[in-house]
Amino acid sequence: MEPQVSSKMKKVLLVINCIILAVGTCGAPLVMRLYFIKGGKRIWLSCWLQTVAWPINFIPLAISYFYRRKSNNNDDNNNNNNNNNTKVILMTPRIFMATIGIGILQGFTNYFYAYGIEKLPVSTSGLLFATQLAFTAFFAFLIVKLKFTSYSVNSVFLLTIGAVILSLRSGGDKPEGEPTKEYILGFIMTVASAALTGLIFPLVELIYKKAQQAITYTLVLEFQTVYCFVATVLSTIGMIINKDFQAISREAKTFELGESRYYVVIVWSAIILQFYFLGTIGVIYSASSLVSGILISVLLPVTEVLAVFLYGENFSAEKGISLALSLWGFASYFYGDYKENKKRENIQSPETEMIDKTCTP
Description:
- The protein contains 16 helices and no strands.
- The protein is mainly α.
């Protein structure tokens, strides 16, 4: 058995996964958009890159396995059943089947998102994808019976208003030469990806709750590895049908930044996108699906600012207001979470109980 993660360790994991999620959330749309604006045209390839780096997870999984093996050997050095206690795979068949379903949903989400990234500027696609927070809150309420506090409601409201304000300027963002029909379809596809993302987050949280076994970080890594593998298989089928594998070498030769940099962009796209998935699943494990949605939404204006510097997109007053509202919403949620944790600690504190007993006549 793997040692249970303490509450203190969970907080450390939350911070680490928030950093990983920030890198993936901000970097993914920028590097994906770079591929398209510099001559890339393969949507299925872009979809495939979102999860193809799933073998990276074997690194932390291997570390976790050796850690579990060492811990079991230390705890059971007088027991002859050490080998039976150290399992390489923690995932049960029930969780495995649920993970396959999540992987299929993620595969479609990746395609919708890649399509939107090709047709829309980073600012517009980021704006539309930020609506995943509203979808996450709605589905979390229905699926995992999420209880809202005044702080979480305020946070969702502020972040949603920030996205709406950004939309006031999105009409003039249509790329030059982009057919209106394709632009509108890009809108629809991006919203669809946001809706599916908002559904996947609470479903993952539900799987954790209904697992009928201890949810360890190793199990979370196995979960992500399997569902990213399934999503990769789905996009690989799409690439084969669309003959994208044969087109990679031809596309590299016409890439505006050069053939070698084409492959650099491809490789880093895969790595940064895997950071996004690793961070998302880790935050859901360490906190909740709503926290994942809030972090992704609050990072939207950061991506907007980066797009201004990297791609010359305009930073309007609306984007500045949106940034302020997003930071306010972010602070509101975590201040409320801090107060709730303090309240629970005071209730459960043994010292508090002893004081109460001493003061009782």
